[in-house]
Specification:
single chain, 300 residues, alpha+beta, Arc Repressor Mutant, subunit A, Multidrug-efflux Transporter 1 Regulator Bmrr, Chain A, 2 domains, two-stranded antiparallel sheet, 9 helices, 10 strands
């Protein structure tokens, strides 16, 4: 099925709604109404966009959220998680979890730090680095000798964006290309300091690379009117750990690891907001092929 710009715009609305209501009842009828399509038509376009049925997507997202909590918070019980994410019983939650991860929730919690602790890095095809993000760092990572000197913790003002979502790292390149092709005629690339960013809504620790949801976008001075598949967005104000880097792509794994170590060692906890990176150059034009990039972790 060929998706139109209107289809993608509607899917973006639905994805945002699902993200905000994972702990509530989610039905095909309610979500299709958000997307302004009939349930039958919405189900077709959603599967074409995500390669999953709506039910599969919602169950996966809930299980991934639950798995993240299992690794981070030892005081929450499996019963509490099963209720929070809409499972009818502990046994139904355990069956779904084991089918997805291959182990029970309790075994996942016991084994988690050994198995689900490596940060993986993906190189974007658009000439910009694309880093995967972790909401937590394995306690065994204690080597901070490479900690960057340009790191700060401060509150930022809200940042307006215009862009669109994609699912799967292989789709990030074409998504950025679509944004650039749209932004050129709109005059947004004429500004000498225009910047691009990627927001990550999933952790590569618990989500397969072809399922990770990302938002590719341009930073803008003020909210812009949505246009076709491009929707306005906002990076919320608040406290962030920020690292300023001039590094080769190969160093991204190290600097992201060290940034999360810094968060862990300084006692901060990640807020329920997507981490992101802002690009300041095309590394191919740098004399040493380095990336000028700021990495942001929202914290409380």
């Amino acid at each position: 099925m060929q998706l139109s710009k209107d289809h993608i715009k509607s899917i973006n609305k639905a994805l945002n709604y699902i993200e905000q209501h994972l702990e509530s009842h989610l039905s095909l009828e309610a979500i299709s109404k958000v997307a302004h399509y009939s349930p039958f038509h919405f189900h077709r376009i959603f599967k074409a966009f995500s390669n999953e049925t709506l039910h599969q997507y919602i169950v996966r997202k809930r299980l991934e959220k639950a798995s993240a909590i299992l690794l981070r918070k030892k005081d929450i019980t499996i019963s509490e998680l099963s209720i929070r994410y809409g499972f009818t019983s502990n046994s139904s939650f355990t069956r779904a979890f084991k089918k997805f991860y291959g182990v029970s929730p309790s075994d996942f919690r016991r084994q988690g730090k050994g198995i689900y602790s490596k940060i993986r890095i993906v190189k974007s095809k658009i000439g910009q680095p694309s880093a995967s993000f972790e909401a937590y760092v394995c306690d065994s990572y204690q080597n901070t000798k490479h900690m960057p000197s340009q790191i700060e913790i401060k509150s930022i003002a809200a940042i307006h964006t215009i862009g669109t979502s994609c699912i799967g790292v292989n789709n990030l390149s074409s998504t950025f290309q679509n944004i650039l092709e749209w932004a050129g005629p709109a005059g947004l690339l004429n500004q000498p300091d225009f910047k691009m960013a990627t927001l990550y809504y999933d952790s590569f620790k618990i989500t397969a690379p072809d399922k990770v949801r990302m938002r590719a976008c341009l930073l803008v001075d003020a909210p812009l009117k949505p246009d076709g598949e491009m929707s306005k967005g906002i990076i919320h104000e608040g406290k962030h750990i920020i690292a300023h880097h001039e590094v080769h792509i190969e160093a991204f794994e190290r600097v992201w690891t060290e940034l999360f170590i810094h968060m862990n060692n300084t006692g901060y906890k990640m807020r329920n907001e997507p981490p992101f990176e802002i690009y300041h150059n095309d590394f191919n034009t740098h004399p040493e092929k380095k990336c000028l990039v700021d990495l942001y972790i929202p914290v409380e």
